[in-house]
Amino acid sequence: MESTRTTAYQRAVEKVKRIKGFYKHLTAYLIVNTIIVWEGLKGIELLEMKMSDVDPAFLEWLFYNVFSVPVLWGIGLIIHALRVFGPNMKFVKDWEERQIRKWMERDNFSQRT
Hints:
By secondary structure, the chain is mainly α. The chain has one domain (2-88). 91% of the residues lie in helices and 0% in strands. The chain has three helices and no strands. It has helices at 2-50, 56-85, 89-112. The chain is rod-shaped and about 90 Å long.
């Protein structure tokens, strides 16, 4: 019984570590990409204001590059979120086993009385 509690505690500790890791990743994503987009857009605006002969294709390319970092990193962040919060088959299986035991115990108890 004690080893089951220890194992459950260790799983809970690992789950909390993974959740904390995701929130650190999310925080870094928000801070870094806010700076990238803010500065990138300011830079594009500055180029448009200071240089009238800037190639529009270059500005379009620059614009897409400013937003490509948040989009690609966002895909990675979504994958990270799915791994942390998505269905983990081991936890699902453990839950199923607990439910089966619970219902078997209830049935055995009700059959004895």
